[in-house]
Write a structure and sequence with these properties.
TIM Barrel, nicotinate phosphoribosyltransferase, 39% helix, alpha/beta
Length: 457
Amino acid sequence: MNTQSALLTDFYQLTMAHGYWQNNRTDTEAVFHLFFRRHPFQGDFTIACGLEPAIEFLQNWQFTQTDIHYLASLTNKAGRPQFQPAFLDYLHNLKFECDIDAVKEGTLMFPTEPLLRIKGPLIQCQLLETALLNLYNISSLIATKAARIRLAAGDDPIAEFGLRRAQGPNGGLLASRAAFIGGTNSTSNVLAGKQYHIPVSGTVAHSWIMSYPTELDAFKATADLMGSDTVLLVDTYHTENGVKNAIKTAKYLQTKNEALFAIRLDSGDLPMLAKQARNLLDAAGLQHVKIIISGDLDEYKIAEFKQRHAPIDIWGVGTRLATAFDYPALDITYKLGAIKNNKEEAWQYKMKITDDGSKKSIPGILQVRRYYHQSRPIADYLYHDIFGIDDALQKDADASIDLLEPILRKGELVNALPTTAEVREFAQQQLMLWRDHGQANYAVKLEAKLKAISNPE
């Protein structure tokens, strides 16, 4: 399955590109912005995520000979070729040469703020819309869900194992990366571990326990295999008996100068069972043995279990994280902000007005300036990159930064991307700052000159 293909796009992007080519608009320059309209999960922030996968896609973007052969095979309703041969030749020779400015992955962002700005030939910007939306949608959505789970779990370790129910292999890979950036500590996804250098973790399945004559036999086999990394799944048959067999296994490990690491609970009234298990383990002198729980966990269940003072040490989160179960799509979009037909012409600013006010776009070549007071963010201003901004607007600020940074120029990387671990560290710093100083309805304002062209008479 090859998704690193220029054909990872919607059909109408190609028909529009054909039209631009046919009408001699290949030299028309455009600026598009990728942004979202509302926060997912009825939350107060969204984590920008997806830049590295997007840049990888763009750097490999080309129409191969097999792509061209496929497009040449398409016909319209009249049975004639959908695309002219000369246009397909143009696509085959097309080289990505756009400028990309983007916010750092891991930055907390707010509605209408561009996560990415692309400037270049109109035809290329158009062809890239679908793939960029796809890559940013899943990444930002899952990173934000993971961040919410991180806030609920506090400093407790979180293991992500949602691959088996994620939305396909690539969705699972991107979900594991985004979840790690958002705050998980490890993944069960071995390919994600290899590709993004994420710590991998896992226990055993119920089938492992069931394959042995008795639960205790299975536990001892696990102990022989894993030593001091042993985690015993204790709810295959009867949880209390499972804990008692885990205690026997812990004593067995002690004879080998090793120690049981943890037990895992996956079903039932988990807070109650965790308390019962903790009492049994402590009574046996196994205070060091940790309790891991899993089973359709999300931020709401974790918060509930903490309110019930459940003695849980590690949280295993899968389906509800990797699928963004309660909010499966980010309201993300990609809109034209400015256009000019040749290099000598002034920019024309473009705005979608529409009868639905929530879908109105902001014209221009946008930048976001974030203002700080004593190291905490206090307000964001959207401004036009050509018009500039007067920092006196935010009188109580003592520092500011522009969030969109140069990434590609004419298709070439101008700033090296951080590692996934570095992105995670930055995201967690941002998240903890928000936890300690964040505010509902964070202020995002339009600079006056930008506001003027956004609200024409």
